[in-house]
């Protein structure tokens, strides 16, 4: 048998166990698995050295800021950072680019500007804003769906000037439009009026401490927003997804909605599992400023529980880097940047997989099969690119995240491919690190060598099909009673 590539000595998941095998790759697809290579000829070998080999990991929530905000990040630096973090596919948001992505011309404009930069494969979110609803531009939703976007993003709080938030009735109309496409509508779930009121109140009181940001954007603002989103999903039949969910009560609300049979899903981010606002925002101030904000240690543990029981479906990063000198600290136009006027966002694509391996799998919080679900399978299913992505199946893209489970290392905010040289996770010690990242049978990152892939190798992945996540929620007593 003649193939293009063989990934030798790959230890692949089989449920919660593993098996050592050799993976055959032909025409960038998985062509088979063999224990012995007798009779197999091939052009290239990728030696996995017995390391854990996952189906390529997928981050479905990034803001790579390109085109338009390349002083923060661009598609080359962003996808390089993702590759170094073991990611083989990302899905970029529609808001943080110029123009924002809310129509076919805007989609094509973005694609043409970034396609020659990508190191790994990428998919797109589509967009719908309050402006679109008010102008009656309803046709753009179906058109974007037909083009191949994987979901639609809606902001309940302001994002950037070119991507307006929605009012409650505008959001209801957006849900109705997206429901017709069968795709997911993802909401940034914070009650705008509540956040706006308390931010202004704390500013008037003279608070400038880091924790003030989190206390102003209170837990109740996310709880109320999620409850409203669930009500709208129930009313319209829309598939609702809560992006970057930060609270334990959010996980309970999503779990309860699933128990009712509603198509409601959620994602968390590593910082919501690892950091609490009292410590991190005191130490890092605006360098730990995000929206929704960091929460409490109790929320950390309840989100880990949500990952275990299925009320949190998968992980994303909300990778949103900013320029330190003009957007995080310093003086701009004579005004000092502080906790209120600095930009909210942190990088994350380079640390997602290592954190989930080290703090989830190796510490016994997640089984191996659940690790595969939250890093690879579930998001690919949710967004219609499974089993092309997120699977170790014959015919799937030959994407592999190969992890050295024994390697111990420390997160260093300066040692990153991202342009954002800050990270509130700085200094955290981890065990387990990507050894090689393989996209469609080609190594794009290798530990010790760095990025070995070429800009432009990454391909645009259109939605293939619509699949709904179906996971049994495991609970006891009143775990999911809001």
UniProtKB/TrEMBL annotation:
Pfam families listed in its UniProt record: Amidohydro_1
Protein name: Dihydropyrimidinase/allantoinase
Domain Amidohydrolase-related positions: 54-444
InterPro entries attached to this UniProt entry: Amidohydro-rel, DHOase/Allantoinase_Hydrolase, Metal-dep_hydrolase_composite, Metal_Hydrolase
One of the protein's GO biological processes: purine nucleobase catabolic process
One MF annotation (Gene Ontology) recorded for this entry: allantoinase activity
Annotated organism of origin: Tindallia magadiensis
A single Gene Ontology CC term: cytoplasm
Transmembrane segments: none
Family the entry assigns: Belongs to the metallo-dependent hydrolases superfamily. Hydantoinase/dihydropyrimidinase family.
SUPFAM superfamilies reported in the protein's UniProt record: Composite domain of metallo-dependent hydrolases, Metallo-dependent hydrolases
Superkingdom to which the source organism belongs: Bacteria
PANTHER family per the UniProt record, alphabetical: ALLANTOINASE (PTHR43668:SF2)
